[in-house]
Write a structure and sequence with these properties.
The protein is of the alpha+beta class. It is 30% helix and 31% strand. The protein has a domain of 115 residues: Gcn5-related N-acetyltransferase (GNAT) (Aminopeptidase).
């Protein structure tokens, strides 16, 4: 959690059909999403489709993110119930976001979620997001960050590093 004295909200509403729900320790829920090669490449930079994260890897990732920020499931309303479709961590250094399922990509969900992260960080008193990394091949994520006002502060052969004044 970014501030130990500030409780993490159970729910952060974004739109009527989109919300963030506090991570409840169910790391197995993330496994199918991170086993998608698209998600794994864009979050971890690993192109070996034969190498997929296992449950222990996802647990370690969730433990780290939950200890260093506010970890949330991204949920969308479908058939009258909220369905987890991704995850995001509210933290001022490199806040990660993943939309697990292809059918939910390209619909503005990532942008709406990142706006909610920015708003939450402002509310918590942070003045800058630093060290946000986007792999060079992930044009969609780069465009999203730039559209939200992030600036590329450095690049190398594999990734761009961005920051945002809040």
């Amino acid at each position: 959690m970014p501030l130990a004295t500030v409780p993490q909200p159970e729910i952060i509403p974004i739109r009527e059909d989109l919300r963030l729900r506090k991570y409840d320790g169910n790391y197995a829920l993330l496994l199918p999403g991170y086993q998608d090669p698209y998600v794994y490449r864009n979050s971890e930079g690993i192109f070996d489709d034969a190498k997929k994260p296992d449950l222990a890897y996802v647990k370690g990732m969730c433990d780290y993110l939950d200890a260093h920020g506010e970890l949330y499931y991204i949920e969308t309303l479908e058939n009258g119930a909220f369905l987890p479709i991704g995850d995001v961590t509210v933290k001022a250094e490199n806040p990660p976001i993943a939309i697990w399922f292809e059918r939910f990509r390209g619909r503005g969900i990532g942008t709406a979620v990142m706006k909610a992260v920015i708003d939450r960080l402002r509310m918590l008193g942070f003045s800058k997001i630093t060290g946000s990394t986007v792999y060079r091949w992930n044009d969609v994520s780069l465009r999203m960050h730039l559209s939200l006002g992030f600036s590329v502060i450095s690049s190398n052969k594999e990734e761009h590093t961005l920051e945002l004044e809040l």
